[in-house]
């Protein structure tokens, strides 16, 4: 197995044109530990005792080896390397039920893969709802020396950089949340208690009850605000990732304009914002210049948007070094920024439309597609349970991972019937109305794509079960980057809207938002052999069925590592 894997990785490194790639090894022990990220003591899933986990730093073309020991004792685990395309190593994608069996308590599994593209990425648990329990972190991939030719290594310059990981945080365990979502009637997870920046926040209701007062310690070092140091006159790159389980966020650095230069590992035509809307699963790089009064500090602030906020602003500190009357940890003298109106959808759509490819780094999309899949995103009921569905089908994960089942010919492991490519009444569907019949079905049938074909996916948002309600859904595609061809309001019309697609300079991403009562169109080439999840990155929504799976070129995948087997129909097979 090791020889086969080394051959795959050598080929991958050669394809990326990197002559002197390194191997970077990490040993991780996954365990529950008591932590106080927002000053409230709670069990969290940690990596080597910490949450967030360590930032993985590498250079384009490097091989990453992460040896994961599951010390959770009573809980499985799997880790997804979000934004890494896993070319040649689809079994390392880390998606339980899709590409691997989970890592059992007490077992160890080594994820080995090549980081093929420079940029800002993340990793997180992809088993149950563990991501919201603390198993997450960032990946930073630098440009390989010489990869950008004789000019600048990147289309912008800066003097230093910081990483910013945004998260939301609950005091209830993920077990309680999952049980509530599966209940009849459903018990919703509710709004988060706190917003975290680099794993640190502040719960504001410590005196709400004697029990809370006993578990809350506002002087605990775990919840001291994160501090980002800058030197006056210097320009800094802030690499920002959102690993939230529910919240769409608006991020701001008080008093400092931000120039957006990267999104999901692709260079952006630079544009300036006061604050940045960022959805779960997205990453951005922004540049700021430390050009404000150096005798005081400034807030970094994250605020909930697209949902009526019930969570206080998450904060950290931008600290100027060198000010005559300034301490690095001094609290800024002003209130934290409150952000834009939470329900200003048009404001957020304008940012989506402004995010296009850098002129010198644009990759033109294929002018046409071979296939269009139109997915209507609705909230439904199945057996009394509230679910999410695509084209009236709510997704369920099989017990045998698709990749294993397909390679081993286990046809009974999942539904062989093709899932629907569009939805009934698409030509006249009213996306603003409550459905007359909310009932839906479940399926684990994959969408099978012809290898090398060009696929368009149009995500159509609609009204939920309650009147006048529609939410933002950030959709993430594993194993690929896609071109974002357009966003629109209301019902997508295949006879009209494709004429306005941006085929000149669309940004490539791996995660994109579909806005309330709107649609988003994307295009990708099915050229990465494997089985790949495509799902809403809101943890509860995927748990409730908002996702699908694509299969492409599985016959081209090499022999599978036996370590990814052992569940479902492969139980006892390794």
TrEMBL record:
It catalyses: 4 L-ascorbate + O2 = 4 monodehydro-L-ascorbate radical + 2 H2O. One of its GO terms (molecular function) is L-ascorbate oxidase activity. Gene3D superfamilies: Cupredoxins - blue copper proteins. Belongs to the multicopper oxidase family. The keyword Disulfide bond applies. It is an enzyme of class 1 (oxidoreductase). One of its GO terms (cellular component) is extracellular region. It is found in: Secreted. CDD domains: CuRO_3_AAO (cd13893). Residues 1-21 form the signal peptide. The keyword ATP-binding does not apply. Its EC number is 1.10.3.3. This is L-ascorbate oxidase. Keywords: Copper, Disulfide bond, Metal-binding, Oxidoreductase, Repeat, Secreted, Signal. Its main location: secreted. Residues 324-343 are annotated as: Disordered. InterPro entries: Cu-oxidase-like_N, Cu-oxidase_2nd, Cu-oxidase_C, Cu-oxidase_fam, Cu_oxidase_CS, Cu_oxidase_Cu_BS, Cupredoxin, CuRO_3_AAO. Dimer. Residues 330-339 have a biased composition (Pro residues). Residues 31-142, 161-322, 421-553 form the Plastocyanin-like domain. Its cofactor is Cu cation.
């Amino acid at each position: 197995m090791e020889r086969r894997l080394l051959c795959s990785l050598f080929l991958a490194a050669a394809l990326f044109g990197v002559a002197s790639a390194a191997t970077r090894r990490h040993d991780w022990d996954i365990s529950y530990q008591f932590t106080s990220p927002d000053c409230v003591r709670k069990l969290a899933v940690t990596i080597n005792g910490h949450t967030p986990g360590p930032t993985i730093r590498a250079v384009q073309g490097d091989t990453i080896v992460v040896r994961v020991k599951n010390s959770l004792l009573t809980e499985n685990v799997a880790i997804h390397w979000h934004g890494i395309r896993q070319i040649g190593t689809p079994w390392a994608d880390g998606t339980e039920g899709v590409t691997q069996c989970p890592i059992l308590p007490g077992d160890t599994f080594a994820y080995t893969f090549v980081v093929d593209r420079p940029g800002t990425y993340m990793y997180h648990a992809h088993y149950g709802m563990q991501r919201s329990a603390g198993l997450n972190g960032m990946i930073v991939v630098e440009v390989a020396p010489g990869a950008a030719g004789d000019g600048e290594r990147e289309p912008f310059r800066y003097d230093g950089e910081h990483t910013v990981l945004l998260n939301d945080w609950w005091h209830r365990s993920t077990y309680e949340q999952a049980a509530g979502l599966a209940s009849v009637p459903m018990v919703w997870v509710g709004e988060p208690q706190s917003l975290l920046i680099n794993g640190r926040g502040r719960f504001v209701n410590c005196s709400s009850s004697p029990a809370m007062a006993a578990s809350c310690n506002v002087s605990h070092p775990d919840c001291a605000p994160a501090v980002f140091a800058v030197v006056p006159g210097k320009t800094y790159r802030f690499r920002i990732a959102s690993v939230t389980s529910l919240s769409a966020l608006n991020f701001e650095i008080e008093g400092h304009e931000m120039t957006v230069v990267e999104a999901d590992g692709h260079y952006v035509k630079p544009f300036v914002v006061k604050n940045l809307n960022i959805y779960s699963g997205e990453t951005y790089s922004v540049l700021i210049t430390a050009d404000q009064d150096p005798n005081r500090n400034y807030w970094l602030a994250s605020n909930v948007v697209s949902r009526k906020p019930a969570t206080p602003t998450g904060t950290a500190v931008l600290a100027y070094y060198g000010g005559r009357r300034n301490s690095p940890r001094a609290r800024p003298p002003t209130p934290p920024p409150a952000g834009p109106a939470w329900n200003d959808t048009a404001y957020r759509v304008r940012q989506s439309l402004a995010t296009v490819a850098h002129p010198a780094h644009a990759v033109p999309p294929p002018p046409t597609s071979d296939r269009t899949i139109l997915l209507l995103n609705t909230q439904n009921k199945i057996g009394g349970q509230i679910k999410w569905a695509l084209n009236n089908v709510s997704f369920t994960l099989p017990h045998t991972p698709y990749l294993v089942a397909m390679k081993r010919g286990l046809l009974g492991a999942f539904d062989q019937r093709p899932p629907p490519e569009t939805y009934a009444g698409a030509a006249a569907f009213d996306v603003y109305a409550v459905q007359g019949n909310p009932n839906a079905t479940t399926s684990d049938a994959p969408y099978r794509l012809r290898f090398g074909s060009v696929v368009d996916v149009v995500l159509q948002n609609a009204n939920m079960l309650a009147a006048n309600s529609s939410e933002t859904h950030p959709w993430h595609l594993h194993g690929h980057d896609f071109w974002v061809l357009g966003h629109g309001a209301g019902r997508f019309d295949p006879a009209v809207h494709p004429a306005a697609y941006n085929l000149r300079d669309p940004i490539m991403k791996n995660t994109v938002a579909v806005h309330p009562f709107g649609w988003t169109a994307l295009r990708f080439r099915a050229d990465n052999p494997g089985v790949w999840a495509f799902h809403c990155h809101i943890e509860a929504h995927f748990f409730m069925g908002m996702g699908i799976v694509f299969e492409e070129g599985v016959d081209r995948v090499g022999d599978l590592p036996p370590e990814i087997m052992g569940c479902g129909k492969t139980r006892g097979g390794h």
